[in-house]
Amino acid sequence: MTAVKIYGITICIHEKNSENIYEIDDDCPIIHLIKTNLEDGSDIYLATGKDDDKKKLSHDEKCEEQNEQDICFEPNYLAEFKTICSLNVTVRPIKYDGNRYFRALSDQITGSQEGHVVLRAIVIDFISDHREIFESSIDHEHFSSWEDFIYRMRQNGTFADGIVVVASAMLLCRQIIIHQRAQRPVLFKSLCFISNNNQIHLVYDSKKLHYNSLWLIDGNKLYVEESECVSA
């Protein structure tokens, strides 16, 4: 079993047919997922049906180091970006694969890209559980049906779309702000009450279709007034 903790939620990933029982010492919410291999070699993560509220890990949490691929920017990219935001910011490069949105989201929440797998699982589960909210917004040019959308979005390497960003903000109860060069930041708001001091900031390169994580140069979390943004 692999266990990670993201935004106060403990995620336990079980191998298929696992019968092991785990406990945790604290009272934080816990989600159980089961790793299932598909015929094409990819993996999906599904709910196990376990309803244990308190579990204890029988081993230390271990995370495999990700090989980061450096992203090269045009020389004036950050200069233009700083002018737009009137802030001293730095872009934290995210691995260039189909998980780039969830990797960037994980970096903003935990300071590491490691949580992208479980973030994808819980966000897509949230979308699946709220079909009445999201179904009308799927892009039928890319997805043949609601079931096709959910199936493909669960799979490792599938690019996230706007529905996923909206669902992420709703699930995490945090503002997600997407920055692009030469444009005002786009604000995705949660419906629940949240603190503006806990924003998630991603930078999107529309040419490369790539997300990176945005921080202040001093390592502190970035804050942008809603008035500086365009609402999604």
TrEMBL record:
PROSITE patterns: OTU (PS50802)
GO molecular function (one): cysteine-type deubiquitinase activity
GO biological process, one term: protein deubiquitination
Domain OTU residues, every copy: 89-217
Coiled-coil region(s): none
Record's protein name: OTU domain-containing protein
Species of provenance: Rotaria sordida
